[in-house]
Amino acid sequence: MIKSKKLASAVAVACAMTLSSVAYADPVEKLHQEELVINKAGVKSQKRVESIFEQSIDLLSEYRQIVDQTDNLRVYNDHVQKLVKNQERAVSSLQSQIDSIEDTKKGVVPLMYKMLDSLEQFIKLDIPIEVEKRNERVERIRRLMTEPNITTSERYRQVLEAYQIENDYGSAISAYQSKIDGITVDMVHVGRIALLAQSLDSKKAWVWDNSSRQWTALNDEYLKPVKKVIRMAKKQVAPDLIQVPVFASESAE
Asked: Where are the coiled-coil regions (predicted)?
């Protein structure tokens, strides 16, 4: 009887201890689970923080790019404004020049007509060097004066070129063929000092007398010198000293 009671007491104590262990283990498990939940939540929070930080870095980089672009645009806009102001000044200057050009044209065109008249009169009074060619040049320029597709500057250039050609006659020696009283002759001019002519058979020679505006026959002694001058002008012989008849200027009374 006593043994049975001791056994029952032992069993009761064991059950009590088991129940006590079970009761103690349940809160620990809960704490462990809660700790896991907290850890998971912490991991998620950390990931969110890292994501927000990365986004912040991206936004900061984008902000800096925008600031740089804004500064570049500001500098570029200042540059463009300066260009526009300079272009406006250039346009204003060009307009002033255009207006002045129109005023210049009004003075240049009459001047060119006067220059052509003077040139035509000069050719008439000058020794008759290639007269037809010179007169044709003047007439051609006169026609250009009324051509609508020719600029004023081009007309003026043509007039100046004609004057330059006339000036060159004074220092050139050139030969060409022409006619005297229906006879074909070789003509040669030594600048404007002398205008000579010789028949193709070299048997006759003439010199132009500008005071009487006519040809004067030369003596036979001038046949060889005139022929030599003609050959020099044609570059058939080397340049050399030449003997040409020259009319002495009249003494003033």
From this structure: 77-104
Question: ∠179-183-189 over CA atoms, to 5°?
Answer: 40
- Bridge-based pairing of strands 214-217 and 173-180 is unpaired
pTM listed for this prediction: 0.58
Total count of residues recorded for the chain: 253
Query: Which residues are bridge partners to 187 per DSSP?
Result: 176, 197
CA-to-CA distance for 127 and 195, rounded, in angstroms? 7
* pLDDT, tens digit (0-9, with 9 covering 90-100), for 136-193: 999 999 999 999 899 888 999 999 999 999 999 998 999 999 999 899 999 999 999 9
Q: Which amino acid is at 113?
A: Y
pLDDT digits (tens, 9 = 90+) for 10-22: 555 555 555 455 4
Answer whether 138's CB lies under 8 Å from 112's CB.
no
Torsion, Cα 52 55 61 64, to 10 degrees, reads -70
User: pLDDT value at position 208?
Assistant: 94
**Beta bridge partner(s), residue 208:** 215
Domains of the chain by residue range: 173-244
